[in-house]
Amino acid sequence: MNKKKLFITVTVLVLPAILLGVFLFLGSETAFMLNFPQGRYQSITADPSAGFHWDYLLYTPKKVTSSYLLVIPNNTGHDDDDLAVHRAAAKQEITRRHTLADDLGTPLLVPVFPRPDGYYVHNLDRNVLLATQDGYQRVDLQLLAMVEDARLRLAERDLQIEPRFLLWGFSASGTFSDRFSLLHPDRLVAVASAGSHSLPFATYAGENLPYPVGTYDYEAITGVPFDMDAFAALPRFLYQGDQDHGGYFTSNGTRYLADEYFDLFTRPEVEARLASAPTPLITGSEMSWEDEDLLKYRIYQGAVFVDEFIAIRQIYAEAGLEQTQFKLYPGVEHEITTEMRNDVREFFLAQIH
Prior knowledge:
Elements: E1 8-15, E2 19-26, E3 32-37, E4 41-44, E5 56-59, E6 69-71, H1 83-104, E7 108-111, H2 126-129, H3 139-155, E8 165-170, H4 172-183, E9 188-194, E10 203-204, E11 207-208, H5 218-222, H6 228-233, E12 236-241, E13 248-251, E14 254-257, H7 258-274, H8 289-299, H9 306-318, E15 324-329, H10 338-352
Parallel strand pairs: 6-7, 6-8, 8-9, 9-12, 12-15
Antiparallel strand pairs: 1-2, 2-3, 4-5, 5-7, 10-11, 13-14
């Protein structure tokens, strides 16, 4: 019998006062990073009795100077039924973003939400918000429960943290953050997000706008009326690269930019469907993903990706929603640049000091 040898190289990487990373290289396979706590990083086990069915990670800077918590929703980037995959991605988020928490002097919370096939939890879409499956009900409320649990744990260490918090996200987690700010504007100090964005209106341009496009069924979902005053007063920083094409899409072996694929294949189909679609498009309590796409295409007059961002910016300006800032970064694709990170830091610092 031939025996195949397995060579494991272990490299210990010291990250100042934060973590030890152990990298296991198995041949030419992907490297996995296992992060070990150095006193300021905790993994909190799910506690359904406290209102959250999934674990979360909590990082505490060496020097806490703010009474606020920073929350960054996790975003694995793909479906996977293995929760360990999402836990690893959440740990990477802590590794990448802890310096912002250090700069702000705030503890950092990252949830370990799942993303199985059919449940795009990481962007808090309509299917997720209305989910009835055990463990998946109202993940927005589960995040609030995690925040309350973290506040209690930090209080045990003589760190008094306010109920309202900072929220930051990019891509899917940016969409999550934007939608969360629509659902719970009163629970936030400020939000910075780069993703898809909602409108704080029940109707617009003759159309009813159900969640997540708008607030048409907000009260039916949450049990309380939408608080426009709280939303209008919430400082929000929405940003995007002006070369963000929405990533890539592969079809029949050909790789397209997402906006290129949309123009070639999706746009003609959407326009054909809209030609015979009623106005308003949505009149009841149901809205499929296809209906959502049609609705957004109609109210934004065919604008998608960066053009949609520009259209939303104009709508907010016309509505006088001055607390929501918009910024496009020239030459930037689907990424977080140093300039973006610095702008987010300065935006948050202005809100907490």
